[in-house]
Amino acid sequence: MLLIFATASASLIAKEKTVIEKRDDLPRHTYTINVKAVELYQNRTALLELASKVKADLEEDLDSYIINDKTTLKEFYAILSTVALLEGRWSDYLDHLQKRRELEDKEANRLTMGMIGEAIAEGKRAGVPNLAVYVGEALKEKVASMPYQVVETQLKSAKGSSEILSSALLLGQIESTIQPMLDQSGGKMSRDVATSLISTGYTLEYYLPLKDEIARVLTDIIDANRVEKKDIWAARKIALHS
């Protein structure tokens, strides 16, 4: 009887949850920081405090609502993944990544989703002595198991990002776009802006130190799969003069 009652109670609670069909139907969360945006990356405590508040709101929304919009759910788990990396919760990152992949309909996106973060989390969890070497080898193994023609565009995009991203570029964008808005609002920001600042924290702390190795590995993979197009004009030229 106890089991039946518990099951019935859980079912009743689930039915009382509001069903959300689109992102705009969710509560709007705002956050405030009392430092310059770029100072978050010299003050890890402030960055983690912001990340923790965003995580708490996302988890509360997931617990309070039935969210039917896959795009919104993927976004939620992507943010939670980033926070998990910043907080050193490697297994939680991998769990959130798996949930994102299960929600992804496009094969190419699903196969390549979070592959660099996954390698970082796996390496950190294993306590490898050289993270760059581990991530490079892990990246090669992951891509080797994928059909190259399916993921080619994603790999080239990732390679391009690894070649142009820099701390100067990221911090310059924050100072020119986000900081003026924060100056006007007294440090108050939307969840989207907070998420952007948190993601930049991951990029600066984990991605940029590995970007040269990532670029090298992706370049090798792309070059190895390059197919030279046949020069039909050279063949025709020979035929005309024969």
Keyword list:
about 240 residues, mainly alpha, two-stranded parallel ribbon, 12 helices, disordered N terminus
Molecular structure report:
The protein is mainly alpha-helical and 242 residues long. It has one domain (30-226). Helices cover 73% and strands 5% of the residues. It contains twelve helices and four strands, in the order αββαβαααααααβααα. It has helices at 2-16, 44-64, 70-86, 90-103, 107-112, 115-126, 131-144, 148-164, 167-185, 191-207, 211-224, 232-241; strands at residues 18-20, 30-32, 65-67, 188-190. The strands form two sheets. The chain has a two-stranded parallel sheet with strand order 1-3. α6 (115-126) crosses α7, α8 packs antiparallel against α11 (211-224) and α9 (167-185) runs antiparallel to α10 (191-207). The longest helix has 21 residues, at 44-64. It is globular. The relative contact order is 0.12.
Share of helical residues: over 70%
How many domain units?
1
- The largest beta-sheet arranges its strands as 1-3
Count every helix, treating DSSP H or I runs of 4 or more residues as helices: 12
What overall geometry do the principal axes of the alpha carbons give? globular
If you compute it from the alpha carbons, what radius of gyration comes out, rounded to the nearest whole angstrom?
A: 23 Å
The biggest beta sheet reads: 2 strands, parallel
Order of helices and strands: HEEHEHHHHHHHEHHH
Q: Please provide the count of β strands.
A: 4
For this entry, what is the oligomeric state of its chains? Answer: single chain
- Summed over residues and divided by their number, the pLDDT gives a mean of 90
Portion in beta strands:
under 5%
Distance between the termini: 94 Å
